[in-house]
Structures are given as structure tokens and as C-alpha cells.
Amino acid sequence: MDKLLYGVAYYDEYMPYERLEKDMEMMKAANINVIRIAESTWATEEPENGVFDFTHVERALQAAQKAGISVIVGTPTYAVPPWLAAEHPEILAVTPRGQGKYGARQNMDITSPAYRFHAERVIRKLMECVQRYPNVIGFQLDNETKHYNTCGPNVQKRFVTYLREKFGTVEAMNAAYGFNYWSNRVDSWENVPDVTGTINWSFAAEFAKFQRTLVDEYLAWQASIVREYAREDQFITQNFDYEWRGYSFGVQPDVNHKTAAKCLTIAGCDIYHPTQDKLTGKEISICGALCRNLKQDNYLVIETEAQGHVNWTPYDGQLRLHAFSHIANGANSVMYWHWHSIHNSFETYWKGLLSHDMQPNAPYREACTIGADFARLSEKLVNLKKKNRVAMLVSNEALTSLNLFRLPEKTGYNDVVRWLYDALYEMNVECDMLFPEDENFGDYDVLVVPALYTAPRALLERIKAFVAAGGELVTTFKTGFSDENLKVYPETQPAVLSECCGIAYDEFTVPEDVALTGDSLGLPQGAGPARVWMELVRPVTASVLAQYDHKFWGKYAAITENAFSEGHATYLATMTTPECLKAVLTRVLKRAGVWGIEQQAQFPVIIKSGMNDAGKNVRFYFNYSREDVKQTYYHADGTELIGGTAVKSGDTLELEPWGFKIIEENGKEG
């Protein structure tokens, strides 16, 4: 891209009174240079079957063009109109709860032929309408697309076809899934049971994987239609979202973002997070990293909050901190959902940039400063490239398996991911996110693998080869336990990685009143509790970094490290305190030569880096706290971009609460 995008979602259809010109005037004053339209309003665009009305779309396009504002047009397919559900009730997804009812969004079966027919028609009509407008810069496919747990008869039939293509024979499927158990053995493809009643988690996990492929196919289908109309200079994106725990938390269970992104020209995402005293930047960082590594390139933040939930009303300065945190992570846009607070219905209290009175307010005034800085500094901050030496491997299959075989304390896969990622973040170690489909493990010095419960042997062999070639592996309990069919490996655990890690175990339990101790990590007697899960690890060639401080479990290792060929593998057999985990990671990072000057700073000071189009390093120093912070500037001499002042290495940066400094180094990289 040639500039940073700063924008909002805009719905002329929702406005309580005529104010289009006023809105464009206010946007222009805030240096908002892009709006996103149309993705939510199928019923307005096609009020009756075959009757199309794009008045609101064209009004917004024309007003934006007059104001010099670009537009991203969304296909309106994620919220179906009432007439379509009435004429074709079969388009409403059948889920394990039964037949869906009309009312909510994202309630359809994305495989339904009737739904596809009408969706394609409205997409084509919309594309024919908007392509005459030169200010349309790109298209968003659908909206936060998922499979919506569709599992009706037509989906079950497709699943059987999928299984036949995968296994060829029912005998092979029976063996892979262990269907002899409880007489689940299938005699013919015609008698494959409805998966929603299964007690076989291998079968259930395969169905979840199959459902994710439906999203891949659906988005690719939409992309193929849009490409028939799109100009060469227009992009195609999708606003992927993440596991939701009241805010964006981690890997999305219902979509494999890596495979779904193949049809896009640029990856996009929606990131929401707590604010006020709970603002840490962690969600911005991990979700941004997940999106950045889909195409291994810059990405778009298509939705984030301005005010959002009532408990997210930002403190002064936090909106600026949000925006530049996204840019520091490699984003090329910050776009708010949405321009104004809606006056009725489900999202009445999900507030936009403007409040319900539609007047300039504190968030809008702060947004004006962000827009001005984006416009002024765009050439120095757009297309920032990051070269990280630490990566984390995440897996949808492992997520599914640990949702099925749930850990105690309601601990899910993403809890283990965040335990590791958050520690690295607080230590100022920037981290890329890898997926099983990625082939570039060797580009990194350290590979962190959380709870890879289910993995094909080939993936485990690749991890082992990474260590043998000189890499540093950090992996955890529940790694290398079952194959790709969720069938436990009948060999020494962790399977394939046992030799690499230099350990073995065959017993595990839930820790109760179990602490850790370890001289190598400087842990005092009874340091912290072992949490959630504990494997009773026997070191074979590994050194013990910590053991269980317990009368009966004390003979077993809790944390080990092992030299294997040219590299090392560190194994965490239990979930520890953050302090203990950071001691382990420090040891690994120092051995890998990754420990650098940034690690002298600790949270709430967060340091991010990237190289701009001019080949210069840009350093971001953020203060995620309500207190004034004085922080040494560790990097090369440069210019602080917000204030335009010179900064020398070793200078003290004064960071106000929720404040930041951005320094462009004087010299070019290399």
C-alpha cells in the first residue's frame, strides 16, 4: 500500500436522520481516508426477491468520492433478509440444537444451494453497481465468516463424501477412528451415523476439520465471483475474527485462517480488547501476529473498537495507543466498528466513534489527532516489515482436540497458547505465529509449541528436525500425544519427540497442592503451584530444571532441557506461574542468542520494531500503564516522529500514562 488507511464502518441505512454530508465533513476533518460499507444490509439492497435497491450504497459512494475518501465494499451475505428465510426455510442452518430460527445474523447453512443462488445474485448485482466508482479500493468477502455449526442432512452427506475421498474404504476409516469401541464399527458408507450423536472424539474432530474446509470453499467461491469484476488495483480481503471470550482471545476454533486466506490478496482481521486499566496490548499483539503470518505480509485491521462495550470507554490517550500499537505490529490500517452508535436493536450499547447524539466527543477529538499523525507519517510507517527470530506453532486440530478432551479448570488450548505468548510479550520478545501448513520453521532460532495434542507423525518429525539442525524448542504437556485422527500414539510419550526431549512418561494427573523447586532456575523451595495438569516425566538424557516439590511426586521432573544433535529441547510438563515460565524462557532465549537490549525493559513498557520502505528501523516504545514511566532508549540515534525531536541512544524517554514514542533510526539497515 502507498499509505496507512484510517477509517470506520459506515451505514447510511442506519442513520436516524439525514446527515450524510455532515458525516463526510466530520470524517474529512479527522483525516479518515476510508470507509467500509454494505456488508450488513442485504435486506436493504434486495428488499424483495429479485428487486434490488442500492440507493444507500451509491449515496455513500458518491459522498465519499466527493470528500476524497476511499471505500471498501463488503458482500452482504452474512445476514439474510426475512423474505429469503420465509421462501427457503432450508437455508437456516441445522445445528446440534436443531433447526435454526430467523432473527440473528450468521444463522445460515453456507452450503445451501438456495442460499448460494441468492447470495451470488446479490453479489453480482452489487459488483455491477459499485465498479463504476473509482474510489472503491477493495472488497471484503462476507463478514467474520465461520461454519456456524451447520450439520444438517446435506452437510452430513457431504461429510460422507469427504470421508470416502480420505479413506477409500470403511475398513480404513474404522481402523483410523477405532470404531470397534462400543460397536461403532461401520459396515457401509450408507450407514455412517450422524456425527452429532457420536461419542468417538476422533470422528467428532474430523467433522470439525471438515466444517472448517466448508469455510475455505465458501470464501474461495465468493472470491471467484468478485474477481470477475475487480480491477487489478483492487484488493480482496476478509475480516477474520478470533476465539471470543468477551473480547478477541486466540486461535479461532471454527476457521483455519491459514487455508481460508489463500483466496485473499491481503489478510484482514477484527481485534477487540479490554481498555481502561485492563489494557495491555496483548490481544492487539497476538491477534495481529496471527493475521500477519497468514500471508507473511502486512495486514488490515478492518474492525476494532472506538468505544465498544460500556466498560471499554477509553481513558484519554488510549485510542492513540491502540492505533499505533496496531501499526507497530505490522498493520496497514485501523478501522473502527463503527462510525456512530446505533439507536436500536442488538448492538445499541456497542458504541461507535460517535455516541448516540452524533456530536463531536472525546473519542472523536482523539481520533482527529490519530488521523492527522497517520496522514503526516504514513510514508514512514506504512508497510513495516518485521524479522522475528522466535515463532510459535499453533494448530486448529490441537485446539479441537483439547476442546473435546478438556483440561481441568476449564482450561482450553488457547489458555496454553496465551500462557506462553503473554510471557514472551511481557519480556519484549516479538513472536511470529506459524501453522502446520508452513514450511519455514528453519527461519527461526526458537520454536514454541504449545499443547500440540494431535499431530501427524510428519509434523512431529519436522519439529524434531528443527532441533537437530540447531534450533531451540520449547514445548509443553499434551504435545505429541495423538495422531492426526486423534488416536493415541502407542509408543513412548511424547511420541516422536521423546528422544529429542530426552524424556519419557506414561502417567499424568491433576496437581493438588503441588509446588515446584529447581536450583537451575533459581526457584525457591515450594515456588508457585503446578497448575491444571502434570505429567510424571522421567528424564532419560535430559537435565532436570525443576521437579515437583511433593512427597510422592518429587521423583518426577516438571521441567527439563535436553541437548539433541545441534539444538536443544525444553519440555514443560505442567503449567507454571508466569515467573517460573519467564525463568525458563530467559534460559532458552539467552542460549539461542535472542536475548537482546529490548529484554532490559519489562512490561508495562513494550518495545516493537519494524523496517519501513526507506530501509530504516522504526522503534516503538509503549507505556501500557496509568503511571508516568521513564525508560532508557536502547537503540540507534534517530528522530522521534510524533514530536520531531532528535533522540540519542541512551537518552531517557518520558512516557506519560498510556503514552508512546516512535523513533526512526537515522541509518538504513545493513
UniProtKB/TrEMBL annotation:
Alphabetic keyword roster: Glycosidase, Hydrolase, Metal-binding, Zinc
Highest taxon in the source lineage: Bacteria
Keyword Zinc annotated: yes
Pfam families registered for this protein in UniProt: Glyco_hydro_42, Glyco_hydro_42C, Glyco_hydro_42M
EC number: 3.2.1.23
Domain Beta-galactosidase C-terminal stretches: 613-664
Domain Beta-galactosidase trimerisation: 389-594
Enzyme kind, highest EC tier: hydrolase
Residues annotated as domain Glycoside hydrolase family 42 N-terminal: 10-375
TM stretches of this protein: none
Chemical reaction(s) catalysed: Hydrolysis of terminal non-reducing beta-D-galactose residues in beta-D-galactosides
Family: Belongs to the glycosyl hydrolase 42 family.
PANTHER family in UniProt: BETA-GALACTOSIDASE GANA, BETA-GALACTOSIDASE YESZ
Protein name from the UniProt record: Beta-galactosidase
